[in-house]
Every structure is written in C-alpha cells, then in structure tokens.
Task: structure prediction
Amino acid sequence: MDQLTFKVAVNRFLIYPRSWGSLRGQGWKYGSGFVDGIFPVLSPDAQQILNFMKKEMDLNRVRDALSSLPPTHMTWDDIISVAVQLRLNKRWDPIIMMCEWILYRSTFQPDVICYNLLIDAFGHKSCADKAESTYLNLLEARCIPTEDTYALLLRAYCTCGLLEKAEVVFVEMQKYGLTPSAVVYNAYIDGLMKGRNSQKAIEIFQRMKRNCCQPSTDTYTMLINLYGKANRSYMALKVFQEMRSQKCKPNICTYTALINAFAREGLCEKAEEIFEQLQEAGIEPDVYAYNALMEAYRRAGFPYGAAEIFSLMQHMGCDPDRASFNIMVDAYGRSSLHEGLEPDTFVLNTMINVYGRMGHFKKMEEVLAVMENRPHAPDISTYNILINMYGRAGYFEQMEEIFQLLPAKNLQRDVVTWTSRLGAYSRKKQYTRCLQIFEEMITDGCYPDGGTARVLLSSCSTKEQVEQVSLVLRTMHKDMNTKLHN
Result:
C-alpha cells in the first residue's frame, strides 16, 4: 500500500460518538496508557492507519500518506490512538515517524502528548540526545511539560547512564512547580535498573521515602525484582514486608517477583509459601506465577515438584507457554536422566507432553523408548498424549498406528483416547470421518463426555451438520438417562 486511503462515512459521527479532539492534551499517560485506563476501540479509519504504519518503513511514503488525511479533530484522535497502540506493541520507529510528522510537518497544533510519545520512543531506543532535543523543542513550542514528560526524560537519561542529567531533571521540574511524584521516582528507578545501576536505584528509593513520597505498588515490585536478580531474596522479602506494613496492596506482579527471588536460590518452600499468599489474596495465578514456582523446584533439583505444578497449571485452565516447557525439559533432562534419578510414569508422561507441545517429536519418541525398557511401563495416559500430539501435528499415520496397537498392549481405550483421535480429524473439518469414529466409539462401549461433544460439533461446516450432530447427542443423552433410571 503506497497511499493511505481515508474513507469518511456519512454516518461516521453517529457510529463513533465522541467529542472532537478528545485526546488533545490528555489521553495517554506514562505507565498506564489512556488516562482513565480504558483504551478506545479503534475506528475503521484508525485501524487502517495502524495496518499501514505496521507495514510501511519508507519515511517519505509515510509522510505523504499522513499528509493525505483531512486535518480534523477526528483524524487527530485516530492518529494518537494508533500511536498508543504502536507503543503497546513496542513499535518505536513508526511512533517516531508519526510524531515527528505531527510536530514538524503537519498543520496540527503541537501537543504535549506527541512530545511525550516521542521522548518515550527515543528513550527506548537509547537515544538520550534525541529525547533531550525533543524536550527542548517542546519548550520552544511553548508547550507545558507534564509530570510524564519528566518521568520519560529521566528514564531515557538513566538507561543511557547519564545520571548527572537525570538529576538536573528534578531541578527542571521545580521551575514549573512540579514536585516529583511516585510516577517520576518510578521512572528514575526503572531507568537505573535498565542501565544496570542497582545501587543508585536503591539510593533513589531511599530518597523517595525521605522526601515523603509514598512508594507505589510498582515501586516496591521493582525493588523486589532488583534484590531478587541479585540473589538477595532476604532483602526482597524485607521490601515486601515493608510494603504490607505501609498498607500498599501487592498485585500479581509483586507476588511473582518475590516467588522469582526465592526461585533463583532454589528456596522451594519459601516460593510455595508466597504462591499460597497470592491465592489467599484472591488473585488468580497466571502463567508467569506458575513458571516462577516451577523454576524454584527446577533449581532445587526436584523435577517431581515442577511436574506437579505443571499439571496443576493445566488443570486450572492456565495454558503453559514456551518458558514453561523449557523449565520442564531442563528439570527432567538434568535431574531425572543425567543425575541417575529414576523417573516414574507420571514424570515421563509429562516429559512426553512437554516435548510434544514443543514439536520435538524425536525426543518424545526417545522418552517413549525409555519407558518401554524400564519398570515404569507406559499406561493409557502415555498413549493418549501421543495420539493427541500426533493428531495436533497432522501426523495421522502415526496417530492411527498407536491407536490400533492399544488392544495388543492390553490397554482399554478411554474417552480421552477416542476424543483425542476425533480431535485430529475435527481440526481438518473431516465431518464424515468424525462421525465414523464417533460410531466406532459407541460400538466399543465408550460413552462420550462434554469434550467429545464439543470436538464433534467443531467438525461441522454447515448448519445442517450442526443440527444432525446435536440431534444425535440429545438422543444419546436421553437414552442414557432412561437406562440410569431403569
């Protein structure tokens, strides 16, 4: 797309009822996004601009395209919304192109939002000189710098190791009657941590408290992270305790940072204790919290503990990410196989599951071979995992081979076996084949569950197929209820 087309519908203002220029002078706030924490839904025009900016790298084409847009308040809101969305995606170059166009080449009145976004982008690219130049341009344009302006400038200086200039920022703030708040101190500490200046970050934290600025949840979380990465979990815990004594409520990031601090030192019991506190606080653990706890067991050399957390995570409906699988592979690879520990069927099944999800089928088959030559023989769960993994990967031949071998191994196919096999064909929308397998399942005496029904319905491509499957399932359910009551 060389030219960005901008279509204006007649009823646009009825569809997107918002005041013109509603994001001017506000809208984006450092550390949160939009000032009220709610991001506006992108209009069709804004979405078109976003798609264009994600693809186009030529500066001249970007300028020409943006210059073709009507210079209206609605266009302004769309452009700012797109810039913030790009920031969420950490796309700094498109932000720089857009904001520089607005400030130096467009007919729009210069606005502090654009300067702040530009300072932020240059800071992330470690271009402190350009961030500073943008700040000076802001003053020259007679824009009033905000607290966010100084917070972003501070972080840019700290990231680049320009600590003397960072200190000058505090003096600059006082010129405009601004007292450094938690947002500014947090940016300072964050920048120092990114610049690997931990000691100075601790000093600023202490200064913050001396100046009667109440640390926020983010402040304490950063300090816990700092001490955790330095393998000083006792200090991380001390900060956490101070946080609670100050009636500052920890969030999931705080708890995860503390779990990680203990995990780095292999302190499983401490990590599990904090994990339990997280749950007692009514917070649902996410994949990062589970990973931190798994890492604690991995570092301590307890693969069984890591396996239990991995299974718990899946049972609670939290999908593992790549880091989860890497932790499990490393835990088993180092502790179970290389150090002479004898893994049981549960551990080996989990290893097969991990390798399968990572696409390492050769390693998965190697673990199966180990199981077949050890006292802990494969069970039906082992083969269910294999059927599921081969099916998801589209390896139908291997999947069917394992399925057909089960009777010879004296293993009874259960509902998971049949549903896993069914799922492979369902993902390919092979409706007729799915019905055949479903009939085989019933003939084999295996009654389907809710998962089977969902998989069978997902194989449908037409309304008629959905109705046919629904009728079959309702009839089966009715027949089963009749048998139970008789």
Remarks:
- The chain is about 70% helix and 0% strand.
- The radius of gyration is 29 Å.
- The longest strand covers residues 28-29.
